[in-house]
Fold each of these.
Amino acid sequence: MADSFTLPLRPNLEKSDRPDTLPVEIAQINEQWGGFRDVNEEVLLAKIAEEEERGGPVESDEDGDKKDMDTTERREELYKRRAEITQFAMASHMETMFALDFVSLLLSKHAPRQAETSMSAFLKQVAPVGSLNSEVVHPPPKPDSVNKDISTVSRGWRIQNFNSAANKLLGAASRLEKEVEAETKYWSSVLAIKDKGWKVCRLPRERQSLGVQYGFMEATPAFRDRGLASLRRAKDGSLVLDQGLVPSGSRFVRVRVKRGSRITGCTKPPGASSNDADSIEQRILQARDSVFEDELFHELVREARAMASCGVTTRQNLIQIPVADDLEILLDLVDVNDESLHAEQDSSQDDVVLAGGVAHSIRILLSFAHRQNLHRRTQVPLPLTPKRRPNPEYHLLRPALAYLQHTSEARYLESFIRDIVSTLRSSGFQVPEFTAQMFSNWKLPHPRPSPNALEGLISSSLKPIESVFQGKLLTPNSSFTVRMRTNMSFPPFGTHYDVSFNLPSVPDLKSPGNLSLREEVEAAVAHLLLLDVVMNISSAQVEEKPTEPDTPAKRWWDPIYPHMGELLIAYDHPEKHKKMRIVLSRDQLSLETYLVRCIDGIGIGTAEGRSQHTETKTWNLQQSLGSPNQQSSAMDFVIAEAST
Amino acid sequence: MHELLLFASVPIHQHAELLQQLAGLTAMQPRHCYERRLIFKAYRKPGVANARVGASQDLQSGDLQRVNKMLNGGMFYTQVVGPIQSTDFADPSVTATANANPDPNPNASPLDPDTDTKMDGMDSDSNIPRSAYDFDQQSWQLEFRDIPEAGTRSAVTSRVMATAALPRGDIVPSMNAWGYSFVTEYLVEGDMFIHNDIVINLHRVLHYPTIPGEETQPRHQIPALQQMAPLEKSGSYVLQASMTVHDGSNQETMKTASQHLFGLREQLKSAVRLEMADRLSLDTRVK
Amino acid sequence: MPITGVYFIPAHPNASTALGNITERLRSSFPDEDLIQLGRWTLEQKLMRDTPGLLPASSGPNQRPSKPRYMQFLSLSHYHNHGFIYTSEPAEQPFNIPNASSPSPAATPVAPGSANDSTTTSNTSSMLMTTVPHSSYTTLFQHFTYACQPFWCHRLTVVVQNGVFYDIGDFRVRLGDVRQTYPTNRVRGTVVEIEWRGPSVIDSLDGAVVSDVNGETDSGVDVSLSVLEESDVDAEFAATALLIREFWGRVGVEGAREANLVPGIGSEVKERLVKIKGARNNRGGLSGSAEDNPDPQAGADVARQYMEVLRFNR
């Protein structure tokens, strides 16, 4: 109630300016002296004397009288006064008794038995019961002037009272009107909120006020409870969103992409979607976004701590995730309105997209985790046990990290294979095209839309990611397959490669199986291609023989150490053999022929007794970009070398 | 495992409202479910229980006492519960034909595979006499409930319970071999809610329409839902709030569980009065 | 479902078992094979008896001595999805089935082709096999000890804790020492399971069911199945049993108790055959594609064999 209003029920009493009445005085004495018992002459005299001694001439005429009177006189005076008091008491008692008798006599006409009890004996003797009657008599008419005065006065009083009553009522009416207006405004805005689809409910701890639920039911309890704010009414009826102690500014999780020491991509704060940023709807939305972002960051930190083994570091308000190579992702929770965020960085478009992608994926995954929570919550619970169930971290960063790592590893492997194949092509080998199936285990859900299709899609992205590289080799019926899997959700973490070969011409070749370093895969693939080239050269003999009729069958390259890339042509001379050494790397293929002098030419290293006479031919990756016909092909070189 | 329970009776007119209240309380949509409940009774060879036992050389007297004590131990009714779908009920529009041509004992007939194939043929003719219910694929679980513990001072019903999944299909031969015989069956329909650790069931018992000769076996087909009659004629429901506790001897968890139930009772106070059940009304012992 | 044979070599309570001997014999009998231990396996069997059967037989003239009834709980680590319960058929029909003696159709309650085919089973054996999900295995055992005391009494528990297995040719051999852990600790002997892993008609059945579930039925398999009869299954079992016996003969360990063609063996296979043949006319994908346990009856045969040899009478 803003101001209380009271209606005058009785006229104001006039203040009496009479001196203190006896009861007041008695009360005063009681207060001052503590009852009459303690007040006797000596005390009073002592008091007076004391006061006199203090020098204050408390002279009063009464004192003067007392001094004048002697003891007997004073006693007489006292008796006289006492008699007076007694007389007064007697007189009042008499009058009371008379009044009682009178009233009793008057009543005895109507209620004789009752009245008799209060009659004095004397009255009973002198007056018979019921001998007095009463009648209403009309007073004599007052003079007009008096009547007029009275009516004027009373009219004046009435008018005055009506005026004040009217003022009070008008005040109350306008106050009510304002109140109604405010309430209408409040309730219409509450209804507007409700019509927008927000859940409006009573506050659990404050039953008389309304609240709006904007948070996420399936969030961690701390954040779930923050998703409820009370809708308070301001003085003017406007709606105030009262979030309690929660800071009201809006924050968001910023994703930055860092390459080396430069920030090359950053997500922008979500702009205000509507121009009336101060509307209650906007404030609810902002509150919802804030609680979501707060929870997101909370969960990110929780997950990041569990990912410390992957090199993720957390500081107070920053998560640093090394992804691959020099790529790093930084996550922090910042204020939307922080001006310093808008400082321009030297950003690249790709990395802005990457940052946006990460930002979106962690939000989608948090929403997915919420749905999973709902799903879990509505299952029949396990029996109650004393031990608390663990609260596992959500998968937010891990899938994103797995994707980024996988993409990076897969691109690297793809470029490596493409390069090495191009190198081979530049030397004239017709290596068949290889195929790369990226994310081969990600299948699109059924085209038929179902409520769980979305969840199925997301949960498939939580599984280990798999890509397959397949290709055929030069040697017929031979092939290689590299299957790479990246897994961040459960051990073993990281990217693992399953490399398998099918090269029947090398009988004792075993596939390397599981590898976990990209260098090992590189080496394995390069080695396989080297073996393939060696086998191809050695087997080309069959095709070449008819075209080169002079070449004897035995004078052809024999793969003595295929794993070293070494082939040999054995001459008749026991200490003079021609050896070819093939070196294949990502961007270079070199064929080197030289004569060896050791017996049978089977020694390797220094034991082979190598001569200085070497012929070397190299093909580089860059050359393949030009026309390969400019240079002679490797096979030409091989044939030429074999025939000389 | 132990089970702690509170019950309330819900008249039919309150049912819809209570469903909404529970949905609000638990923040989930009601999960409508139908359960077939087969009642099995433990049986014992007649005459064995009170057989006089003479002196024995094979068994030591302690052993003999133990065996005798076991022989006089309690025996129980137990339930085998199988969830079914609303689509498992027969189509009411065509049950008339099914009733018009009733098979006296369709399940025990040795020619059953033939009737199966005949039915399938009719399936393709889109003239479905029965639902797609497949008894052989019906999943079951054994639900054993002991008589509620006596003399507990807390105001909840608590009892020993065990639940075990059983193989699909016809469970009667296994149950017979294990010492249980089929008594009868009924159907429970209702809605389930989960409130933290508490399972809230708002359900009622439905009776099958009686067809003579069907009582000795669990039904292989489910009649139309419309033909089922509620056990309680007024159609009222039972609200059951239950919690399971892994280790019933752990006083701390038992206390926590009953406090959770009391919390729910308090929250639902304005709607229903949850209270413990009469112990003897939940007696599962074979007399 | 592979075809197996189980052998049990009993041992004296305090003597050493035949395990070392068998391993040695395996090594010497198959010199061409590397005897490489491929892994470990475990077994647990709990034996229950009918409580009335424990009373002395001479308890009264009016009581004829009844055949003992058993309930055996078996869990094998190589079929970890489910446990096996092997129960004697009830001595008499439960009281509520009327006219159990009359040959009315009601007395054979279950239609052939249902999941637990009691009619065919009871014709061939007096024991009934039930497979239950592993989570239920312990619960059911506890239930029977708690609530069924008047008719079931836990007698023994035997375990194989550290079994090993080898691949020898087309056979897989599992070996392990059987120890009794309840009521007292003692050595029981050694158990050997020989599994034929070579080609078998029965394997094609597994494939048929799988392809059926996927809805891409291979017509070639269908044709081969249509000529497959129950007698063929029996013949297959008999032939494989011979192979297993021959293998065991080469090992040449004396005094073994054999469980090979135990009663009721292969009934799940036959059942499946019936089911597949029926399913051809039936709608596909029927056998529960959402089932967490792909084959809830796998290993029932080997479980039977184990339970035959491990059914000790004290």
Amino acid sequence: MEKLIEILEDINPDVDYATCETLIDDHHLNSLAIISLIAELEEEYDITIPAIEIVPDNFNSAERIMKMITRLQEE
Amino acid sequence: MLSTILWAGKGVSLTSFFSVMYFTMFLPACIVLFALTPKKAKKYFVIFVSYMFFWFISGLLLAYLILSTVSMYFFGLWLSKVKDKLKQESAGLEKEERKALKEKYNNKERGIVILSVVLHIGGLLVLKYAGFFSDNVNLLLNKFGIAGSIKAPQFMLPIGISFFSLQALSYILDVHYGKIKADRNIGRLALFICFFPQIVEGPICRYDQTANQLWEIKQITYENLTFGIQRLLYGMLKKIVVADRLNTFVDHIFSNYSSFHGGVIAFAAVAYTIQLYMDFSGSMDAVIGTAQIFGIQMPENFKHPFFSRTISEFWTRWHISLGTWFKDYIFYPITSAKKIKKLTSSARKKIGNHYGPLLAGSIALFAVWACNGLWHGAAWNFIFFGMYHFVLILIGSLINPLVRKTNSKLKINPDAKWYRAVQIFRTCVLVVIGELFFRAYGLKNGLHMFKRMVTNFSFLLIDETTMKTIGVDAKDFIIVGMVVIIVLCVSILSEKGVSVRRKLADTNIVVRWIVLYALILCIVVFGAYGYGYVVVDPLYAQY
């Protein structure tokens, strides 16, 4: 989780990722930030994130992003 | 008149949600007959009245809607068959073999999807853009000294084709992505795509948002009826009192801009932006309100766009269903393609974590904004409108790290009220400039208007006599201003999480009815009817 928060802070440092649950809904991460995040996540966690996974539900909080990563690693 | 409607379906009287025919006859009849229809037959009744509505407006062109429904039904089943076959054949296989088989079947699915895109979007391209492309090819040939004489046939466009084509395609793509299962019930698919409140201007709903709700449509309740009517009236207030009242002034200035100085053109551009917002968001209020009467919850298409701090944010608040459609079916599929991912990866290593992904993102962004511009119409000013926003969003992303650094150095809090106000004002100015080109009669005129706005800024050449010639006076602007203030207050409260409708529902019944009557009275008294006003069809219905 720490590594993930580090990645997120690198993309947009103005958010408290430990508590924020509206990263997409409140526009903290826009489409271009998502691409940056996906590139970073794929490299860091050795996963492939297909287009279908790019939905607000999977990216609205650090916890949800972590859940998606774990799920994709298991697949 | 009845025979004209029934046989020709020319939609003489039933042109939109705001026509007298719709409000006094069609909608009340639908509500009463729906309430009287037995529970099990209600969904079929809604399909019937939706087809009637479409027929009233577009006549025999109803065939397009039916063909779209049949096409999405068969493509969905075809994809489902391929998926089932893959499941059967991959049972018991090793991981590597399963992967290879999946790849093979994925290619098959891609072929089916491409065919469906060619049919749905290809059809739209031929109907909507054939004239535009042939004109431009002829122009190009003439430039090279070849007499270009390609003549594209003129097609009649069925109402809402740009909306229902995207909705149909989203269903097929969602089945392909495995987000939803193919529907074996063609009735449910028909209702999902034809539901009459949304057919003219959207919102472009997804299958998992409305299909089941519609198929399980229930009896009208008191709360849904009153809430729905309130939303409908609020939409009418925006459309009939503000948008239609501004139309005369806006149309005159845009048609005769060379007679006016830059200040007047700038004022007209602001007025048009307000007109467009009130027209489209008012229509959406009417759509969502009508759907709510029948107990259907439609997705919101606007979220107070003029409170956006950036252009990028603006497009997540304006015409949301179109923006998310482009994002889900164009932007992310492009950025997720293997080659683009490779590009992102290598660019990140060379130019860093911000600019690397931006390179790949800009390719997808370009595709999105080219499609967005073209979706609005077959003209160069729409393409320019798309490219204008592409460049603004790209610049915003490029300078973002620099802005952050500068703010940090100057100790500026980006959440400070004054900073947000400056950002919001800047976004509004950029939006108004974009809308100037969007509304202008062609790109050339748009550029002339912009030049005049910048180089010749004054309010001279507009006085009371000119206003009289245009057909508007101070009273018009006072009425518009008052309603704009009301809408602004409601928006500010909503932005703060306060639901005005819920608050109203919690008040005394006398207060509730006073507000409701005041709303109706306001529409009747201040609505743009009568001499000097023309009935304006919803602006987005033409796209």
